[in-house]
Give the backbone structure.
Amino acid sequence: MSMADQTASKPSFRLSMLIYDTRYRSMTIQVIALILFMLAVAWLLSNAASNLAALGKPLSFSFLSQPAGYDINQTLIEYNNQMSHGRAALVGILNTLLVAFLGCVLATILGVTIGVLRLSNNWIVSRLMTIYIETFRNVPVLLWILLTMAVLIESLPKIALFRGENPINTMSFGNSVAFTNAGTFIPKPIFLSGSTPVVVIFFLSLVGIWAFGRWAHKRQDETGVVLPTFSIKLAIFFLPSIAAFYILGQPITLEYPVMARFRFEGGFVIRNSLIALWLALSFYTAAFIAEAVRAGIQAVSHGQTEAAAALGIRPRRTMQLIVLPQALRVIIPPMISQYLNLTKNSSLAIAVGYMDITGTLGGITLNQTGREMESLVILMACYLSISITVSLFMNWYNESIKMKER
Amino acid sequence: MSNLSYVRTEMLQEQAPPVTQTGIVMWLRENMFSSIGNSILTIVSGVLIYMVLASIVPWFWQSSWTAHSLGECREAIAHTYGEGTEGACFSVITERYNQLLFGFYPSELYWRPILAFVLLLLATAPVLFPAIPSKYLGFSALYPFAGFWLIWGGSLWVPLAAIFGFALAYAAAVYLPKVIGSLGSVIAAILLPLIWWIGLSGSVADGLQNVVPLAIQSVDSINIGGFTLSVMIGITGITLSLPIGILLALGRQSNLFVVKTICVGFIEFIRGVPLITLLFVASTLLNYFMPPGTSFDLILRVMIMVTLFASAYMAEVIRGGLAALPKGQYEAADALGLDYWKATRLIIMPQALKISIPNIVSNFIGLFKDTTLVSIIGLMDPIGLSTAIRANQEWNGIVWELFAFIALLFWIVCFSMSRYSMYLERKLKTGH
């Protein structure tokens, strides 16, 4: 009797319940999925291990400290071919970040302008912008990069043409910049002794701009007085630094590139590969950003503009105070994903020989050392960490500008 | 008493509106010169357009279509239009268009990629346009095998064996539930074809080929190139990434922790790295992950990586659609007593896919453009061929003509896709 009671109060577990009982079924599926996944990963890894062992190159990252032995013609930090593969990879990462940063800035400026102009009521301008967007969006970015590079090489003058008593080509902007088919030569700032205060004052004025902006905003909230913030900020940006510069006796000078016997000496050189990559990525991404901007502005309901007009706010301030803050909420997320795309597309640098991380670590280092597995793992980890950092920032930003509702 | 009131009895003739309020003048005033700023913009654009046209039109017009090298072409232009004339050398296209379209495919077999392309158009038509009866969808389903077979050639038994694997999966899904239960039949539908493809299909196809030889001349994949290659990779990626993307998106939305983690990890990893690194994996690493001794075709490896890449992006797009669906739809499906797969298939997916159409298509466009990246790992797509042509002594120095032609090819395909998505959006709109 006691046995019967027990079975009645606590139904025995049957194996088929793993499949038919919804309480256990999800567990069953998960365990099966986990086992299959682990088996697949183990199979892949054991294959890789045995293949690599057969080739006589077990996993090892020691090649990173061996001398690289190749030159990089565009570096942000000190580098020569005796330095290690690791250092070359670092140069590559910095180059990736450099072109990504430059590209994002230019793409934003272009994209916002084009997106706004596309909504213009000027028929011809809006059509032109549509043509721009459709042209750039529907052609592969690699083609744009190669085309820009080819145009720079074919159309800019050779360095040799700058040589001699009466050169065929002369430098632009008062003999300070030379556009050649090997690159653009620009002046280089030289920081003499006594330049530190100027730099410090410059950064302090940036802090000052930020503090002033906050103060002005607070004051407007409290008293309703609107200050001409833009011109004041502009003044804070320029005046203190320029004053310090002249008071301290001009401690920062420019070193101009000069034509020596065979090549330009002094100054900075920006290789055409960097320029081509930068321009092509910016123009391409600008088309996508323009679409995001247009969609964002159109997403703000017309009632908002009408309400602002009813309150007697002028069109300019309506844009500034009503439309843009709301549009930004829609624009920012796709814009940041375009920044990410631009960063990832910058890996196409390898097509024009700009030495970014793909060109150094994934290109020459990989080919020289034959360490495909290790190089690609590091390469992917670099891009992954950039992407994840940006996504985390984006999530934080989205959270902070989200409309605060009930 | 005279009646002083004056009532006009006949209508006055209508006056013509002021000249500034009608016709082209009004249109110009409203659309181009409504303010000072607008007028400046108009004038600047006009000058810009004029400058571009003034350089392109003569260049286009004074072109050479028959020369065999850049030097010859420049000479011909100088001869016809006078010294110092800049003209386009479209002869590079007329001479090399075969290569740009087919790569190094044997020229006597060009009919095969062309036939494959025509069949592709026929096969996509029933998918694209609902007006076409759905019985033709069967042909669309068979097309991938026919297309691959036409382009690669070889034994007919190989594609037939591949189809048999799908038939096995279908049979297992339809007939086995009564015998071994639904979960068992799902597992069987996955395992049976895998066992068939990996273990048996190769030897069976070989055996059948020996008994009944049915084959066309096979073409090495190194010779497959040009726009054919781009379309092949693009179409494979597009057709496979949609179902895989749907599964990944469902996995990411799922309550099952393990499944969700695997899907999230996969999606975020793929989306975090550039396609080019995945292509490097395809070209250098993928064989390492296979059992020792396996080596399969580079184009196939690239297709696998491109598909995985596109699937991750597709999953995110579809997840957006799933998230945009009101919760009531899920609850209503539950209330009707539908199980998970029925609810997903009949209620959730049709709506989620409809919401995400624009993004799905822009993903397709992105994928198709990204196929050009294969030139970096040495495949001969149009861009890889353009590099080869420009390195050639005869055409060294040619830029615009070649790139313009390739750009035009891609532009036509991508632009039509974006227009199609607009058409579809309008067609499927069920709102008010």
User: Anything to note?
Assistant: Chain A touches chain B through 55 residues (CB under 8 Å). The first strand of chain A starts at residue 178 and ends at 180. Residues 1-8 of chain A have pLDDT under 50 and may be disordered. The longest helix of chain A spans residues 22-55.
